[in-house]
């Protein structure tokens, strides 16, 4: 590697799910690197509770089976699984029409097709694991700027009201798409608005979910209900992702909880019985956001800072996680070959590999939105036939299952210990 003196090999801007996972993966798989995480929220071992008590209103993330394999590789899955609800069945349907398809984990020799885990629980598991590594933290602190220097970058960090600088071989921006840091550094984003919003809440139903995830396409947009709560007993709580246009969102938010349940019942139907309770509602606008060149010498974007997509099929965090592992793989290779991790050849190779995955995933999710958003009768009949065909054609069904489970892709780099699961909600 280059011999220029640096304060740290790698600075990660953002210690949320993406940044913390990257830090842990590097500690496990590229331990030679000195890693520093800059996080805006205060962190301390004393703040980590001994016992986790799930909240009804906890925000959650859908984890594909491929993501479970990654966390297992990082030695984190055993702990994560304590509060991760399995998805053993997936039911996809077109509201008001006959088209439907069903996926079952046992048909693929798996215990689950995916899982649903609270974001806070995932964060706690990551923090506990990171306490036993050499990763250092600057928190609460923020990255305010960066400029290239010989052999790497100089990063401006504000902490305790004062600014200081650290030199590193590479800066990874993992602070999501809303901090403004990527724009401050001159990265150009392209945003395509879907004209929709995602309303997120946890709901209770009179019938048990039986570990089934429902993806329901309606004339007003897709709606997902994911099993939530106990990882062992089929319960009555589900995580809702409800796609609504602006006026419809305003109308729903103005209603009482009982009225919200009634509206939800009208849209979803009775597959889970009666909706009996809806928790705190969160919402955000839906956009397809891309960055044409997310990698430059010494700096690279990951997770939502690099791309954001529609939450249909729960692809977002799983795509980000696969990208993180691809980046770790390239860092591992660079260290083995004596190349600086900030070289454009290293980061450009990551960009090339991850872009293939990103393009396939966006094509998959975006096509679902556009196909199921068409009200024309011939198109509606064709998509119904397609859903039925998925149930009848084993090859097509396996392809769809692989997309949902995130298990397609390249083999791991030989000898690296890093697996890339390169084929397939909020990662910050």
TrEMBL record:
Keywords: FAD, Flavoprotein, Monooxygenase, Oxidoreductase. Pfam families: FAD_binding_3 (PF01494). GO terms for molecular function: 2-octaprenyl-6-methoxyphenol hydroxylase activity; FAD binding. Pathway: Cofactor biosynthesis; ubiquinone biosynthesis. Residues 7-331 form the FAD-binding domain. InterPro entries: FAD-bd, FAD/NAD-bd_sf, UbiH/COQ6, UbiH/COQ6_monooxygenase. Its EC number is 1.14.13.-. Its cofactor is FAD. One of its GO terms (biological process) is ubiquinone biosynthetic process. Belongs to the UbiH/COQ6 family. NCBIfam families: PRK05732.1, Ubi-OHases. This is 2-octaprenyl-3-methyl-6-methoxy-1,4-benzoquinol hydroxylase / 2-octaprenyl-6-methoxyphenol hydroxylase.
């Amino acid at each position: 590697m280059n011999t220029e003196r640096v304060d740290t090999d790698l600075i990660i801007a953002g210690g949320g799910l993406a940044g913390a996972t990257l830090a842990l993966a590097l500690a496990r798989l590229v331990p030679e690197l000195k890693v520093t995480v800059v996080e805006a929220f205060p962190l301390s071992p004393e703040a980590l509770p001994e016992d986790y008590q799930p909240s009804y209103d906890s925000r959650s993330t859908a984890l594909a089976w491929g993501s479970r394999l990654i966390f297992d590789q990082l030695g984190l899955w055993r702990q994560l699984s304590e509060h991760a609800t399995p998805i053993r069945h997936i039911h996809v349907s077109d509201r008001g029409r006959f088209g439907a398809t069903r996926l079952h984990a046992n048909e693929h020799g798996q215990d689950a097709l995916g899982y649903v885990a609270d974001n806070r629980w995932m964060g706690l598991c990551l923090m506990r694991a990171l306490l036993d590594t050499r990763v250092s933290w600057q928190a609460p602190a923020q990255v305010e700027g960066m400029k290239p220097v010989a052999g790497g970058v100089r990063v401006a960090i504000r902490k305790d009201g004062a600014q200081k600088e650290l030199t590193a071989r590479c800066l990874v921006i993992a602070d999501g798409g809303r901090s403004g840091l990527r724009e401050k550094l001159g990265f150009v984003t392209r945003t395509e608005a879907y004209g929709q919003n995602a309303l997120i809440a946890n709901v209770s139903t009179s019938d048990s979910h039986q570990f089934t995830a429902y993806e329901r396409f309606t004339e007003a947009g897709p709606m997902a209900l994911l099993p939530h709560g106990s990882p062992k007993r089929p319960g009555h709580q589900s995580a809702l992702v409800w796609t609504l246009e602006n006026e419809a969102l305003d109308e729903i938010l103005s209603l009482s909880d009982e009225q919200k349940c009634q509206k939800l019942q009208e849209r979803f139907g009775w597959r889970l019985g009666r909706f009996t309770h809806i928790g705190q509602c969160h919402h955000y606008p839906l956009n397809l956001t891309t960055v044409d060149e997310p990698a430059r010498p010494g700096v690279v974007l990951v997770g939502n800072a690099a791309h954001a997509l529609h939450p249909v099929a729960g692809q977002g965090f799983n795509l980000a996680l696969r990208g993180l592992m691809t980046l770790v793989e390239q860092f591992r290779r660079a260290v083995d070959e004596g190349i600086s991790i900030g070289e454009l050849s290293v980061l450009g190779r990551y960009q090339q590999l991850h872009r293939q995955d990103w393009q396939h995933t966006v094509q998959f999710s975006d096509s679902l939105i556009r196909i199921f958003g068409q009200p024309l009768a011939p198109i509606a009949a064709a998509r119904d036939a397609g859903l039925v065909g998925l149930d009848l054609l084993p090859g097509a069904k396996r392809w769809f299952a692989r997309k949902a489970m995130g298990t397609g892709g390249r083999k791991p780099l030989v000898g690296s210990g890093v697996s890339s699961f390169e084929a397939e909600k909020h990662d910050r």
